[in-house]
Specification:
With 492 residues, the chain is α/β, with parallel strands linked by helices. It has helices at 20-24, 61-72, 102-115, 138-145, 150-160, 169-178, 183-186, 189-196, 209-212, 214-232, 246-251, 265-283, 305-318, 349-354, 370-382, 398-406, 417-421, 425-430, 445-451, and strands at residues 8-9, 32-34, 37-39, 43-45, 77-84, 121-127, 236-241, 288-294, 323-326, 359-360, 389-391, 412-414. It has an eight-stranded parallel β-barrel with strand order 4-5-6-7-8-9-11-12, surrounded by seven helices. Strands 1-10 form a two-stranded antiparallel ribbon. The structure holds flavin mononucleotide (FMN) and iron/sulfur cluster (SF4).
Length: 492
């Protein structure tokens, strides 16, 4: 993962944990009710992909265990990982693109409700994404994919400063294969990207019929997926309008589509609002429906917080029940993959901003994105709307969460990695036993596993008590897949 050049190591500072009484009277552990969204407290575990589904996207025993373990901590809400709305193979990521996924998801909902004693609301994040291919070897690119045109030939001649005569297409391709120094002058920006990081579809690819027709199909695909989520018993749906995926790309200033679905803010908002309306019509007004969106894309030419505020206001006006705020996580600045690997969106500076580590700049990772959530909340409130805003990013203590709520920077405070490090941390804090919390190190061992598409675990517990009877392990047998159980009353 990319690290800010300053590489300042920030310690995970000690914190004061509340007594049981203080916790019970705190803001974070107080209920929230907004329209259909009812939380017993304002704690929230945001979506985290654990790479535990079957290759066909079905719920497995390991998926059940993963979410069951978070449910033990009884947070206000858990959002199930980004779940694909299409019925297409996408590796061990959950899917909801067909009714055959409903039984497994129903089991998941029941398990979370049972393990949290009915306290935790379970939402599911619905995602659409476009095709990304592996980085090709240069030979394959020039011999199989690339077709030189007259324009390329002219640029090659300009680069070489001489006439290339009647070189055939094959000869031009062979020349480029062996002369990387002219690639930047001869290839288009897009071709250079295809060669250097691999082919990736883009919402701007209006020449591709299935990309041109996204606005025709996505509202129904999202609506059908949401209907299945409702049938499976989920308490709500989070539309994934963040990070590197289709809907965030429609919202982005980098969306220059000329078909009424890009360019101006109005154009960029059009499809996300049409998707929202289609889903709302399907699930009804009594069902929780919100989105996750970016407060800052952190890429050249992308949305900044002012754009995000305008977008969030429109979503709030449209009737969303919550807006969960994230940052970055784009393909545009991702690290160049090795030949044969696919580019991964959390590996560049924008990826760093999404999941900041303790190796940071002066600001450090803790509560790094709170200002952005605060700006979005303020702009929604200025419009006279009360839509709850969920803040996340380096939040690792009760004190910090309480301060965020006291400052009015957010209405709900989410913690992803801290909840992975210790799924019981909400419970321990509630019980006045915060000193027993296993605190996240924010060095992103978990995210490195995610990047490699390996089962996600936490370094603080994945080698503990590996010989415990019945413990489920990673495919290589070296790591346990969920944190050991916490017994609040161990026998003395
Ligand atoms: C392993 C892993 C998987 C993640 N998967 C998702 C995801 O599916 N959808 C999403 O919106 N965010 C995802 N995130 C981002 C988190 O939800 C969260 O925004 C980010 O980790 C920052 O919060 P934190 O500092 O509390 O960890 C993931 C994060 C991690 C570490
Ligand atoms: S692996 Fe590291 S960064 Fe991830 S949850 Fe555990 S301690 Fe935190």
């Amino acid at each position: 993962m990319w690290t800010p050049p300053q590489r300042i190591r920030h310690p995970v500072l000690d914190t004061r944990w509340p007594t049981r009484d203080e916790a019970s009277q705190s803001r974070w552990f107080s209920p929230l009710a907004f329209g259909p969204l009812h939380l017993h407290e304002r704690t929230w575990v945001p979506a985290m992909v654990p790479w535990r589904a079957t290759g066909d996207g079905l719920v497995t025993g390991d998926v059940l265990e993963w979410y069951g373990r978070f449910a033990d901590g009884q947070p206000g809400a858990i959002v199930v990982e980004a779940t694909g709305i299409r019925d297409i193979p996408s590796g061990p990521l959950l899917r909801i693109g067909d009714d055959r996924f409903i039984p497994g998801l129903t089991e998941l909902v029941k398990l979370v409700h049972t393990r949290s004693s009915g306290k935790t609301r379970l939402l599911i994040q619905l995602i659409d994404f476009l095709a990304v291919k592996r980085r090709p070897p240069a030979e394959k690119f020039f011999r199989r994919f690339w077709r030189p045109t007259n324009e390329h030939k002219k640029r090659l001649e300009a680069a070489l400063g001489c006439d290339t005569g009647n070189l055939s297409q094959t000869e031009i391709a062979e020349y480029l294969l062996t002369h990387p120094e002219v690639h930047a002058q001869v290839l288009t920006a897009r071709e250079l990207r295809d060669l250097q990081v691999g082919y990736r579809e883009d919402v701007n690819d209006l020449h591709l019929p299935h990309i041109r027709d996204l606005p025709k199909h996505l509202p129904n695909l999202f609506a059908d997926a949401a209907k299945r989520a409702q049938q499976a018993g989920f308490d709500g749906v989070e539309l994934h309008y963040a990070h590197a995926y289709t809907m965030a790309s429609f919202l982005s200033k980098t969306n220059t589509r000329t078909d009424g679905y890009g360019g101006s803010l109005k154009g960029r908002l059009r499809l996300p609002l049409e998707v929202y309306q289609a889903v709302r019509q399907t699930v009804g007004s009594a069902y929780t429906l919100g989105c996750r969106m970016l407060a800052d894309e952190v890429i050249d030419g992308g949305n900044r917080v002012e754009d995000a505020c305008a977008i969030a206001r429109r979503f709030a006006e449209a009737g969303m029940d919550f807006i969960s705020v994230s940052k970055g996580g784009k393909f545009d600045d991702a690290k160049q993959p090795k030949v044969g690997d696919a580019v991964y969106p959390y590996t560049g500076p924008s990826g760093y901003e999404c999941m900041p580590t303790v190796y940071s700049d002066e600001r450090g990772p803790f509560g790094r994105n709170i200002g952005l959530a605060a700006a979005i909340r303020r702009s929604i409130r200025e419009r006279g709307l009360d839509t709850p805003v969920v803040a996340a990013g380096g939040i690792n203590s009760f004190e910090m969460a309480e301060q965020i709520l006291a400052d009015g920077a957010a209405d709900i405070v989410a913690a992803a990695r801290q909840s992975l490090a210790d799924p019981d941390w909400f419970r321990k804090t509630r019980l006045g036993r915060g000193h027993e919390v296993r605190r996240c190190k924010y060095t992103n061992y978990c995210e490195a596993l995610d990047t490699k598409h390996k089962q996600v675990t936490c370094q603080l517990w994945d080698r503990v008590a590996l010989d415990e009877p019945g413990v489920s392990k990673s495919t290589d047998g070296r790591r346990r897949l969920v944190a050991p159980a916490w017994d609040p009353d161990p026998p003395s």
